[in-house]
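Good morning,

Attaching, inline, the backbone tokens for the sequence recovery test we're adding to the shared suite. The designed sequence is right after.
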């Protein structure tokens, strides 16, 4: 097979991905092997690849490819999430552009449009993952709205309801006025924003007296139903039993007294709006206050807004300020920093709203999840610092609002047969619902026409919390072979931003439905930021197009670039130069292979230098393999790659190949050549999880391989015992060689010119690498001596001294003059450092690290002076 002069990622990537797909390497079925299972964090069905996906899925692919090489039955389940809020918003916007309102459609009509949308735009991201090299079991691709997945969600809801864990309640919820749905507490992002504090006057009924109340939301006065004062506040004792008049709407409201009010805050008077604040609602219930909701679902004002009806809340805030001022009700305005809740999905400002919703009790669900992560260590978070975040959330968790005012998603399986609060049944389908309703009412004449299913959909996370279970059919048939074989899964790779949304909830579901953990390890990636540290976003224009990066640098280059800078839980400062570095690494390996394959091979005696080089690289490979395994065990994926990078670039390409390279126009012996190929193959196995395309291409160039012999299904190298001493001896030998090269360069001694090397072996250093020193230093004669050599260039490594007799090309007088000048400079430098260190005030007051730095300078200068003086003695 002809080896191209250049590595061409475009040709290679398509060729080998098609080959892997054709030979079904990614597909897994239960067998005798131990399974290794990963489920993909399902991206939005209509999403496209971004840098976070690139990082997350590259890490997953590294783990799955390594598991495959290690002999596990590797199964990586891909899929997509229906993303109810985001997708419905896109479908509604599309319909609106066509002159169609969602409200004009039936649910079935709308869902047809939604499915058409997902058919058209869905799955794009999965195809893009293939270009990255992701080796998912595509035959197992799941979508959270698949029939079996939806059936699993409905079964879960019914089961939890029957256990008394799901209930319907009239509660203050987080309302997203843009998506027109409720959100769970975890979907609300709080931001500090500059706002205003409005001080307003409320007249006491029947008097000319006023009380002043401060509010950040003047528009909500139209929903006020009381003023509350602390019962011990002497300033307002005289107002007991009195009433106040709300400005603008002139509603007469009671003045109530409750210890909830902080007397020291503001004026000590609090306006109470039970429909628009969770604490006000509690007060309202306690004091039987009227509840007045002033907002429509899109946060415009309703009829209680009087002449502001139909206007947006923020427009009204500006206009009502002017009206309050005009009627003398506005005392003053102050700047005020607000902590504003916004929608995680639409970014709209959240409105507290009273509403009938479905909730899941969390008190019992969290207990096994706390134990698994924080007590038994059954599930490990990487890095472990996220344990504290996990603990805080679980120990302060509130009941989960699982209903959404949407149509895209699993419809809540509650069926109403009357107008009463308890006039409903919960069942997996309408047939079961009818039977339950007939039984509950005692009315056997009820028909399906008498039942009306709850129009709301379930929270998307209530679907995806079952993901590791439902993708293997574990909810519908927990005894099926695949579920019993693949579950629990092994590793989960995801971002810390969904530690609560998804990770913790999958743990809840795992223990609730299987009594087992859903996975053993959670690798939490960092955010991908630009090199200035900014979060990547379209609005900033700082996010590169992932497929464009693959086009420019190749998939392998991008994967290496991302992973070299990525450690668990730490944000990545992404720079395209990292991908260029990955591309350069690919070219380095390619050229190393071309070098080896370009050598003429002959059946000749193996040189001693090659024999020693092979022994050394064998040991080095084993040492690095041990480090790599340890890094993988600790989920230090970046460190594992860096260890392989250094092994291949420094040890294999820069040292090993130089040590075994035959002389100019000379052949290499068969034994050394075969061993070089064997070493290269071992390197390719270690590199394959990180650089799958390049490595498979080289593997197939090395020899003709059957599909069963492809690199993707080869065997990971085994760890064997190795000799630490040979590694230490080699490191010493490299210093000797570096010393020779430095002298050659400094003294303009051609690298083609042979030299003699005399060694005063005070260190008793091993001589096993002498043949390497001779070859790489171009040494004609290496000999060991008992006395120093005069009239020679010299250098020292530890206590060993190396002498290179001067040839006619070196000007002895000039060399002595140069050394004397350097000695004089170094002695002057030493004196300045010692003066500083002799100053007691400096030593006492300077930072310890500065003093330590000065002492190191002193020690280095003393050592250098000794070396220079010895060199001068040798030359003279």
């Amino acid at each position: 097979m002809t080896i191209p002069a250049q590595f061409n990622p475009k040709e290679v990537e398509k060729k080998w991905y098609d080959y892997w797909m054709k030979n079904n390497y990614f597909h897994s079925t239960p067998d005798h092997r131990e399974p290794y299972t990963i489920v993909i964090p399902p991206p939005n069905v209509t999403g496209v690849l971004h840098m976070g996906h690139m990082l997350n899925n590259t890490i997953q692919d590294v783990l799955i490819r390594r598991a495959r090489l290690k002999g596990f039955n590797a199964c990586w389940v891909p899929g997509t999430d229906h993303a109810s809020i985001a997708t419905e918003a896109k479908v509604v916007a599309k319909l609106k552009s066509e002159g169609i309102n969602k409200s004009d459609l039936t649910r079935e009509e709308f869902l047809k449009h939604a499915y058409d949308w997902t058919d058209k735009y869905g799955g794009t991201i999965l195809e893009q993952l293939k270009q990255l090299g992701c080796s998912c079991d595509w035959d197992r691709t799941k979508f959270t709205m698949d029939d079996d997945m939806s059936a699993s969600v409905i079964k879960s809801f019914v089961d939890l309801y029957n256990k008394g864990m799901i209930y319907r309640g009239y509660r203050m919820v987080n309302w997203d006025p843009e998506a027109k749905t409720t959100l769970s507490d975890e979907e609300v992002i709080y931001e500090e924003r500059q706002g205003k504090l409005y001080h307003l006057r409320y007249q006491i009924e029947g008097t000319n007296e006023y009380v002043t109340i401060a509010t950040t939301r003047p528009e909500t006065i139209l929903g006020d139903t009381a003023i509350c004062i602390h019962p011990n506040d002497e300033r307002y004792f005289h107002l007991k039993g009195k009433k106040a008049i709300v400005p603008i709407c002139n509603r007469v409201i009671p003045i109530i007294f409750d210890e909830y009010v902080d007397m020291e805050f503001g004026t000590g008077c609090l306006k109470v709006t039970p429909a628009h604040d969770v604490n006000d609602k509690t007060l309202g219930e306690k004091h039987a206050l009227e509840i007045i909701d002033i907002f429509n679902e899109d946060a415009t004002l309703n009829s209680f807004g009087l002449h502001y009806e139909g206007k947006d809340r923020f427009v009204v805030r500006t206009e009502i300020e002017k009206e309050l001022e005009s009627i003398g009700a506005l005392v003053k305005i102050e700047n005020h920093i607000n902590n504003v809740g916004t929608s995680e999905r639409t970014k709209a400002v959240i409105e507290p709203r009273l509403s009938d919703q479905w909730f899941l009790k969390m008190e019992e669900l969290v207990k096994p999840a706390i134990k698994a992560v924080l007590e038994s260590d059954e599930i490990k978070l990487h890095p472990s610092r996220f344990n504290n975040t996990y603990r805080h959330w679980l120990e302060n968790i509130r009941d989960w609002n699982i209903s959404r005012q949407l149509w895209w998603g699993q419809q809540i399986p509650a069926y109403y047969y009357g107008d009463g609060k308890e006039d409903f049944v919960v069942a997996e389908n309408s047939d079961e619902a009818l039977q339950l309703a007939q039984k509950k009412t005692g009315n056997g004449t009820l028909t399906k026409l008498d039942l009306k299913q709850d129009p709301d959909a379930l929270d998307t996370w209530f679907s995806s919390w079952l993901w590791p279970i439902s993708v293997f059919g574990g909810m519908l048939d927990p005894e099926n072979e695949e579920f019993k074989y693949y579950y629990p899964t092994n590793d989960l790779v995801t971002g810390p931003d969904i530690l609560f949304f998804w990770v913790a909830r999958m743990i809840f579901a795992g223990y609730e439905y299987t009594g087992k953990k859903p996975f053993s390890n959670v690798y939490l990636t960092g955010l991908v930021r630009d090199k200035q540290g900014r979060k990547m976003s379209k609005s900033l224009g700082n996010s590169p197009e992932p497929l464009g990066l693959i086009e420019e640098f190749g998939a392998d280059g991008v994967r290496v670039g991302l992973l070299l800078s990525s450690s668990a839980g730490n944000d990545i400062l992404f720079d395209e130069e990292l991908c260029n570095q990955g591309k350069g690494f690919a070219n380095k390996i390619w050229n190393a292979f071309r070098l080896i394959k370009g050598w003429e091979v002959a059946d000749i005696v193996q040189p001693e230098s090659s024999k020693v080089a092979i022994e050394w690289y064998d040991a080095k490979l084993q040492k690095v393999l041990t480090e790599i395994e340890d890094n993988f065990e600790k989920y230090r994926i970046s460190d594992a790659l860096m260890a392989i990078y250094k092994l291949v670039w420094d040890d294999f390409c820069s040292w090993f190949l130089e040590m075994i390279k035959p002389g100019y126009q000379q052949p290499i012996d068969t034994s050394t050549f075969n061993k070089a190929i064997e070493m290269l193959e071992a390197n390719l196995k270690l590199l394959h999880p990180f650089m799958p395309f390049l490595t498979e291409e080289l593997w197939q160039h090395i020899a003709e391989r059957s599909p069963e012999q492809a690199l993707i299904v080869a065997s990971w190298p085994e760890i064997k015992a190795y000799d630490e001493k040979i590694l230490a001896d080699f490191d010493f030998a490299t210093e000797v060689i570096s010393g020779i090269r430095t002298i050659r360069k400094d003294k303009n001694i051609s690298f083609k010119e042979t030299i003699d090397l005399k060694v005063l072996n005070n260190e008793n250093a091993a001589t096993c690498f002498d043949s390497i020193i001779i070859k790489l230093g171009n040494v004609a004669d290496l000999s060991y001596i008992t006395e120093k050599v005069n009239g020679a260039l010299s250098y020292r490594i530890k206590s060993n001294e190396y002498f290179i007799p001067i040839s006619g090309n070196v000007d002895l007088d000039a060399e002595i003059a140069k050394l004397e000048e350097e000695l004089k400079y170094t002695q002057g430098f030493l004196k300045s450092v010692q003066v500083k260190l002799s100053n007691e005030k400096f030593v006492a007051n300077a930072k310890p690290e500065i003093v330590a730095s000065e002492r190191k300078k002193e020690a280095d200068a003393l050592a250098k002076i000794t070396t220079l003086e010895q060199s001068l003695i040798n030359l003279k």
